[in-house]
Design brief:
About 70% of the residues lie in helices and about 0% in strands. It is mainly alpha-helical. The model has no long low-confidence stretch (mean pLDDT about 80).
């Protein structure tokens, strides 16, 4: 949590009246410098998680069919087109959510 930067809502420089809806939405609505840094940290973590699970999915989908069915000439396409990209998407989303929750809790 950044204590130095002012909270500036998307609606402009005026602060809206405080109400419960705004308090629940404030984490997404401010455009302060610390908010940008937090978003960059979440994106960096999400990209790393996506690359890690994408690589694991690619290697498993590429090498697995070669080991288990060497006569199938289209086996490695599973890793290239399905398990690699699917692993990247799952890793990107899950690591992004975990880092977002971690950054919101202050840990």
């Amino acid at each position: 949590m950044c204590l130095n930067a002012p909270v500036r809502p998307i609606t402009g420089n005026r602060l809206p009246e405080r109400n419960d809806k705004f308090d629940k939405f404030r984490g997404f609505a401010h455009l302060s410098l610390c908010g940008r840094i937090a978003i960059m940290a979440v994106m960096r973590s999400a990209f790393r998680g996506g690359c890690l699970l994408g690589l694991i999915g690619f290697v498993g989908g590429f090498v697995g069919p070669i080991i288990f069915t060497p006569e199938a000439n289209q086996g490695p396409l599973l890793g290239i087109f399905i398990t690699g990209p699917l692993g990247f998407v799952i890793g990107f989303i899950s690591a992004g959510v975990v880092e977002f929750i971690r950054s919101r809790s202050g840990g």
